[in-house]
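Technical note accompanying the year-one report. For the benefit of new consortium partners, we illustrate the data format agreed upon in the data management plan: each record pairs a sequence with a C-alpha cell string. No post-processing was applied to the example shown here.
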Amino acid sequence: MFTFRPKLRGALAVTALTVALTGVGAGAASAADWPPLTAGAHLYTGTHGTGTATTVDLDDLGTCHTLSAPARSVQVVSGSASVVLYQGADCSGTSPWATGSLAQSDLPWAVLSYRVVPA
C-alpha cells in the first residue's frame, strides 16, 4: 500500500540536492569562501573548508577511521550517507557530532575520528 514512499523520498532528496547545489553554484554569499560543493564528503584541517582535505569513503559504512590531523570543518553531499565525528581517536569522546546528508559546516571542536552511517 505504501510502496511509492521510497521512490518519492528519493525523488525529493534529489530535488533538494539539485536546488542546494544550484544555489551554491550561483554564488551564495554565505558559502563564498568554501570549496565548491561536489558529490562526496571531505574533512578539512582548517575552518571554512581550508587546509588539508581528507576524502571520506561514503560506501564504507560503520568502519571507524582515525585521522592523522584534527579536522575543523566538513562538507557532505550525499543522498544516502552522513558522517558521525568524534573528538577522540578510535571513535571515542563524550560528544559525537553528526552531519546530515547535505552539510557544510565548521565543527564545534576539533575531531580526530569518524564513521559513515546511513542518512
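Partners are asked to follow this layout when depositing records. Helices lie at 5-25.
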